[in-house]
Specification:
Oligomer: single chain
Helix content: 55-70%
Structural class: mainly alpha
């Protein structure tokens, strides 16, 4: 372990990498006796695999029984530092990587980043993108804006809506969006659904978006705005989240954005990514690359740290794993509005494999879905009965 800890001092590290290493070393010093007890056989020569090895050793091979309670937060901070470092180093490769290298990376990591599930979210957003936010059912609005709730039926929303950028903690944003969806439509109307977007058009969006908040004595924040922009134009806008901002800005070589830096987001993030070689030369030679080219501004999200546990952290997977509701339970069931229930049921009944006698039970199915039962669950029940 000692050899592993000091090995980066013999690597050729840039200024940012060296600062990251020093911070990790400082954090590790408070766990030195515990770390020394971990056997290490892999000694990488490069900093990125070194971060992976130290993370693996300190998280998966350490004897937690020997840790004092006060050491657990220290260990957690070490893991957070290593995960942030890995994200930074992987996103940084985008500054020099050609398109083939980028697409191969995504394909090679498709399982750990839950790529299929993320692409299902992309496809769903594409199917509702031309709708106004005002006309969306509440569940679709949650999917577009990036907030998971238990009301999202996993048989319809077979993905975690919070992939790419979660906005769950942006309470004032979601309150404004719920109360004034038409005002957000007016802001997004400045962003064309196709073609290039000028800085002026972006600035018009920012002005209209900000006005929604200032008119209601709230502060406009950047992160949720980037989620809306990225879902409207995933080929041009990269969403940001506070927990990944250090890694993204560091990787792009720009100062960390504040949550009010709308102008710098355009210059440093949007235009910075668009200037990269892989972005400019992106072209499709297979089906996966066709999907990636259409959402190429989202590709940096695939370069953040992920491991074999990442797919299981999906809210969609967690919903699938929840026990089926019991008829004897006294807990509250998530009810749906009639309009939402009708739209969700009609989408399901439009499938080619639905027999006519099940379609004739539409009103009964809608009633059950309104009560909170899943659409597919209800249709399966109807098939069993009839």
């Amino acid at each position: 372990m000692k050899k592993l800890l000091i090995s980066p001092s013999k690597m050729t590290l840039g200024e940012q990498e060296n600062q990251i290493y020093q911070n990790i070393l400082k954090q590790s010093s408070e766990l030195s006796l515990n770390l020394m007890a971990v056997k290490v056989e892999n000694h990488p020569d490069d900093f990125l695999p070194w971060c992976y090895e130290l993370l693996n050793a300190s998280r998966d091979r350490m004897n937690y029984d020997l840790l004092e309670p006060q050491q657990l937060p220290i260990l957690k901070k070490l893991h957070d530092q290593l995960i942030s470092a890995i994200s930074f180093l992987q996103v940084k490769t985008l500054r020099i990587a050609p398109w083939p290298v980028v697409s191969v990376f995504v394909e090679q990591h498709k399982d750990v980043i839950a790529l299929d599930e993320q692409l299902r979210l992309v496809d769903y957003i594409k199917s509702i993108r031309e709708q106004s936010l005002k006309d969306m059912i509440p569940e679709d609005l949650l999917a577009f804006s990036g907030k998971h709730m238990a009301s999202l039926d996993p048989s319809t929303y077979n993905f975690d809506v919070e992939w790419f950028a979660s906005t769950k903690s942006a309470k004032s944003f979601h309150q404004m969006l719920s109360d004034l969806p038409g005002d957000f439509d007016a802001a997004l109307a400045n962003i064309p659904l196709e073609g290039d977007i000028t800085q002026y058009e972006y600035q018009q969006f920012v002005a209209a978006y900000s006005k929604v908040f200032t008119d209601n004595n709230e502060k406009p924040t950047l992160a949720p705005a980037t989620r809306l922009l990225a879902m409207r134009r995933p080929d041009l806008f990269t969403p940001i989240t506070n927990n990944r901002l250090d890694a993204l800005c560091g990787a792009l070589g720009v100062p960390k954005l504040k949550n009010s830096d709308f102008e710098r987001y355009w210059q440093d993030i949007v235009k910075g990514i668009q200037a990269m070689s892989w972005y400019k030369m992106a072209n499709a030679s297979n089906e996966l690359e066709e999907q990636l080219v259409a959402i190429k501004a989202l590709i940096p999200c695939f370069f953040y740290y992920a491991d074999t546990k990442t797919p299981d952290s999906s809210n969609y997977i967690k919903l699938l794993s929840k026990p089926k509701r019991s008829t004897t339970t006294t807990g509250k069931t998530q009810r749906r509005g009639k309009e939402s229930a009708e739209i969700l049921v009609d989408r399901a009944l439009a499938a080619d494999d639905i027999p006519e006698h099940i379609r004739s039970k539409r009103d009964s199915i809608i009633n059950e879905v309104q009560k909170g039962r899943g659409v597919n669950e209800t249709i399966s029940l109807m098939r069993t009965i009839f």
